[in-house]
Amino acid sequence: MQQSDGTFSAYDGTTIYHRTWAPDGDAKGVVLLVHGLGEHSGRYQHVAERLVDAGYVVAALDHRGHGKSSGKRVYVKSYDEFMRDLTQFRRMVESEHPGLPVVMVGHSMGGNIVMGHALGNQQGLAGIALSGAALQVGDDFSPIQRKIFSGIAKVAPGFRPQGLDASAISRDEAVVEAYRNDPLVFTGKISAGLGAALFAAMDSFPDRYDTLTIPIWIGHGTDDRLTEIAGSRELEATAVNADVEAHYYDGLYHEIFNEPEQDEVLGDLVGWIDRTVAAS
Length: 280
Description:
Blueprint: E1 2-9, E2 15-22, E3 29-34, H1 45-53, E4 56-61, H2 79-96, E5 102-107, H3 109-121, E6 127-131, H4 143-155, H5 173-181, H6 192-204, E7 216-221, H7 229-238, E8 244-249, H8 262-279
Parallel strand pairs: 3-4, 3-5, 5-6, 6-7, 7-8
Antiparallel strand pairs: 1-2, 2-4
């Protein structure tokens, strides 16, 4: 396996860090990994290794304000910044591997970003895979709370009213401890601006699910306390023009790739990618 990394300059000059894992021989496809809130691409080393073993080039970026990329920590001015960065990265990777099928895999907020990208840019994608995707606002946010949150975002987008419960990411204590001690993981509170941007994106998705025509893989733990499994079920039910394969893993927490059952989960994902790439 070959590993490399680098940076590119986003449309506004923000430096975006990225890394690539590649097989020593010929590859049969490209997988773009899109990480979640507060974390970074380096946490997907084991996922990348599994995919490389299956014959894929794997490329991943650190979102602006995350990991080794520049920018204010876990903050965006608008959702469009995520969209523009991912589109630029995809075009760059595609130009480096012309002719190879491309699959996007997004986790949590990364699943939200992959969905946002696919709804406007599905042409040329072999398929998308979503792990614990943030597709629906949780019931713990009432309409009044959301209005207050959005109002704060307009006047003070950098204000940070809420954080993430690290104990809810995995049932594996070693994973939780590594997450808490990782200097590249942001464990502080989420900015109101970012939260409002994600809420708005979630609200815009359902009415457009029927426009999706590419294969979709869904994976969600039934005991996920960080993103709503109902959002994944809604996508499965309403993406009527897409071939959807959904897996709801009994008892698993949010990071299904980092649970004790990860071998089963990654086996399901790789099997789906193999079938999707073969049919593309």
